[in-house]
Prior knowledge:
Elements: E1 2-4, H1 8-17, E2 20-26, H2 31-46, E3 52-56, H3 61-71, E4 79-84, E5 87-93, H4 99-104
Parallel strand pairs: 1-3, 2-3
Antiparallel strand pairs: 2-4, 4-5
Amino acid sequence: MLKKIDSIEEFTELLNKENSFYLLKHSLTCPISQAAYNEYEKFSNEHENIPTYYLAVQDSRPLSNEIAEQFQIKHESPQAILFANGKPSWSASHWKITNRSLAQAIPVQE
């Protein structure tokens, strides 16, 4: 299930709580971002056991900037990031965010 986060505190809690999760940086005004969001939502619905979160960059600019700075990932929108063990392990942006690319990035459970 897709959940929205808005604050640095919520994100920090996720890093501490979840072994792995996806995060989508989504622009509310960009048609490419809307297409990526639709793919992300489809992925989320098909993989309910995988935590999926998103932030709206217009609503959560400080959080978006914090992620870019903390993890040295150039900000893009839309941008999907897979976090595993507290750090990014995969990312994609724009048209590369597809249900298929997200599914292929799923970490193997040991």
